[in-house]
Amino acid sequence: MALLSLKDIKIAFGGPELIEGVSLQIERRERICLVGRNGAGKSTLMKIISGEITPDAGEVINEQGLRIASLDQEVPQDLSGTVFEIVAAGLGNMVDLLTEYHSVSHRLSDGDEGAIDELERIQHQIESSGGWQIQQRVETVLTRLNLDPDAQVADLSGGFKRRVLLAKALVNEPDLLLLDEPTNHLDINSIGWLEEGLLEYSGSILFITHDRKFLQTLATRIIELDRGRLTDWDCDYSTYLTRRQAELDAEATHSALFDKKLSQEEAWIRQGIKARRTRNEGRVTALKEMRKERQARRTRTGSARMVMNEAEKSGKLVLETEGIGCIYEGRNYFRDFSTTIIRGDKIGIIGPNGSGKTTLLKMLLGLMEPHSGSVRRGTRIEVAYFDQHREQLNDEQSVMDNVADGSGYVTVNGKTRHIIGYLEDFLFPPERARSPVKVLSGGERNRALLARLFTKPSNVLVMDEPTNDLDTDTLELLEEMLMEYEGTVLLISHDREFLNNIATSTIVFEGDGVLKEYVGGYDDWLRQRQPLAPAPAEKAAKQKKPRPRQDRPRTLTFKENKELEALPALIETLEAEREELFGMLADPEFYQEDGGRVSDTKTRLEALEKEVTEAYTRWEFLESILNSQPA
Q1: Residue closest to 342 by CA, chosen among 386, 384, 381
Q2: How many whole angstroms separate alpha carbon 431 and alpha carbon 297?
Q3: Could you tell me if 308 and 487 are in contact, meaning their C-beta atoms sit under 8 angstroms apart?
Q4: Distance between CA atoms of 265 and 262, rounded to whole angstroms?
């Protein structure tokens, strides 16, 4: 028998059905990812499964005694108590004993000798009920998520509150664990630990995530909620992408043929009396059915069509640091860091939460002065800054007023557009564009900030955690835009795939005040760094595949695949230019012209020879990696 079954679930919130006729079975030890666009109803379906929401129709059937724990996307406003108390609350009846033990232990350590007898009593009760293993689970989860058990949750940032709720969901090891965007606000090390823990988890997991690497590592099955219906894909993420695209192509072909047939039948019926003869009544009836089918068809939500407002090019040098450092309240966040950033660089910044990544950005931008060393900034720099806390948005104002600063129009790359039309490109229908920001979901707030950001002319784009809450389609579009952006990008992100696809180099906080720079994205950093203790995600991968990491065949990153595709055309262009210059230098009349032009042509030809050689070398290198990949 399945752990949990949904049968013909339907729900609507005063409009068209958000979920219509969904059925699902969840078996033991499955790791299922629920995917779909923002607003498709994923979180609603999770809440139906957890019992928080009752569907309008259909049935939810649980195995007897089923234990379910969930992590919601939003943090409750009224969360209070210590971290230990909140996390231990996930243990049910044991929570009071463990909380009391924790409190009495503190009294004893503060010199209260009267607490000894009380502590012995509590210890005996915990021992008799097998509570020490549970206590150990609480402490292990708190340690792994870097949480202070005595901190007041109300005083924590939104990111740390979310960590506390994640710890609460994990600690009781339920039969079914529901996780809605569990990697949001976690740093890369914590995500790696979470991956490892969930890979070893003995229960079933249903999760929602935009983190593609997390999804690929974890999911054994994928279910997609699209236009109210659920499609089941019994495969990993990469296989799902291939199969889904084939299905969407088939659906588009079928719809086109159907629409063509409908159009022909509509033309026929307009011929008049001939269509209403008795012998054609069947055709008339069929046309009516086709009209009903076309009217009932729900089209996919359109893709965002974002355009970035680029300023004129900055100077070649964008930023240069010399021995900069930051010391705050006795802690050395980083020291003696020097780097040069030139126009077109796309720099990923990696490090644990609280390591100083945002502080480093502010020092680079001149919003803070370094405590040691110096920062030199280039000329003609125009910065657009995406703030991870979304503080640039006014919650009380509408989306359109936030984006256009109260105007009815925006100008992007010299073209003036009405704000409503512009926001539709960011998937805001007119009624949503007029809504106050405070009612938006996390993904909508992100899109609103991107819409505002992209109206500002820039040649330096600074993005602090831009991927939180974005659906995969919007995330991939943002990737494409950043890859094509001709300016400079400074990017803080915990999304490893996002870093792989965008970063030309990474600046990494390696602990003890050490900052190092590496060529390439996240996976390139893993290959180049010093062999320290393995990160949790690497350790989990080694457990699954005993072969040492260095013996695994090297694979091309997304960025390298794109580069490989472009290299033949680049080589052809370079060789054509080289042949043209050879022809010019072979013409005696060319030497009758300005001597400076002859010199410049020879210099360019020498540079071209070098560029062609480098392009061929790079092409052969990437081809060799591609050919060595397993089929």
Answers
A1: 381
A2: 23
A3: no
A4: 5
Q: Tell me the domains of the chain and their CATH numbers.
A: 1-67+174-258 (3.40.50.300), 79-169 (no CATH), 317-526 (3.40.50.300), 558-628 (1.10.287.380)
* 317 three-class SS: strand
Q: How far apart are CA 183 and CA 187, in angstroms?
A: 8
pLDDT tens column, 31-67: 999 998 877 889 899 999 999 999 999 999 999 889 8
Q: Can you give the pLDDT at residue 128? A: 67
- DSSP label at residue 223: E
DSSP letters, 459-508, are SEEEEESTTTT--HHHHHHHHHHHHH--SEEEEE-S-HHHHHHH-SEEEE
**Sites in the chain below the pLDDT cut of 50:** 278-279, 532-552
- What integer pLDDT is reported at residue 551 of this predicted model? 42
The amino acid occupying position 163 is R
Q: What is the pTM of this model?
A: 0.67
Q: Hey, what amino acid is at 295?
A: Q
pLDDT tens per residue, range 112-142: 777 787 888 887 777 766 666 667 778 888 8
The number of helix segments (H) and strand segments (E) in the chain equals 21, 20
Contacts of 101 (CB under 8 A, 6+ apart): 119, 122, 123, 126, 135
